[in-house]
Write a structure and sequence with these properties.
Mean pLDDT: 94
Strand order of the largest sheet: 7-8-9-6-10-11-12-14-13
CATH class of the largest domain: Alpha Beta
Order of helices and strands: EHEHHEHEHEHEHEEEEEEEEHH
Protein name: Gfo/Idh/MocA family oxidoreductase
Shape: globular
Organism: Gelidibacter gilvus
Distance between the termini: 46 Å
CATH superfamily of the largest domain: Dihydrodipicolinate Reductase, domain 2
GO molecular function: nucleotide binding
Domain GFO/IDH/MocA-like oxidoreductase: 153-216
Pfam families: GFO_IDH_MocA (PF01408), GFO_IDH_MocA_C3 (PF22725)
Radius of gyration: 22 Å
Largest sheet: 9 strands, mixed
Helix content: 25-40%
Strand content: 25-35%
Length: 319
Amino acid sequence: MLKAGVLGAGHLGKIHLRLLKQSEKFDLIGFYDADEANAKKIEAEFDYKYFDTIEGLINAVDVVSIVTPTLSHYECARLAISKGKHIFIEKPITNTVEEAETIRALVAQNNVKGQVGHVERFNPAFKAVRDQIHKPMFIESHRLAEFNPRGTDVPVVLDLMIHDIDIILSVVNSKVKNISASGVSVISETPDIANARIEFVNGCVANLTASRISLKNMRKTRFFQKDAYISVDFLEKKCEVVKMKDAPLSPGDFDMILQNAEGVKKQIYFDNPEVSNNNAILDELESFADAINNNTKPIVTLHDGTEALRVATMIIDQF
């Protein structure tokens, strides 16, 4: 079992503590949090060992889960890597692309592994259809959330949209050609609503909308590709796959047939895979353990996290 420690015991940090504790692939050693009063309260309530220094925790573990505010990701990661520790780092990877590039270089130099917490890659609805997404040419994504003060210290692009940026970059095998975007600040000092259009060199276009002041929650992405439409509902953990093929010469009574102006007939059929229930955060943590133990590439690499941050930064620069 890998000895694990958590830096940051806020809302998400406490989830990491609970899941690392129950995982059979990790031995949870303890945690550090800058708020000593909060840390001692958590220690007393859940019996997790509290370390009063970052260095003390890092020295006691093999793997460090960094769940601190984004501004401190770089320093926490740099310190852990310098001690030869593997790092799991929550999204966004760092505050700037330059910091992310430095972290990637340090990981390579110190022969350790790193993974970024883009948890939607492990969403069961996305996992169910991932292998059916081939060369999408138009992608539309909506990520809407009711207002929550947590996270409003950064633009909605880094708070919410970056999830969809990572998903899109993971399925579009092409470089970004052009980005246009707009954002509006309603409650926060930074934009609360944003829309971005990403054009790729291969012709794919992605349209992303994110809001943290919506009246309802929505996390849905639709992929349009040759002969197929794929919808993923990340919130409800549902997916829908609609495909087209050449119509049979003798269609059945219940076959759905479309005919275009040239007389070509296509049959529409549904191919919806089964969605398995899972805990996405536990899956991503344990997948990182597998990457360390088997010396394989993590599912969400530091490069992936860097590129998602790079595109997010380009979007913010358009505001």
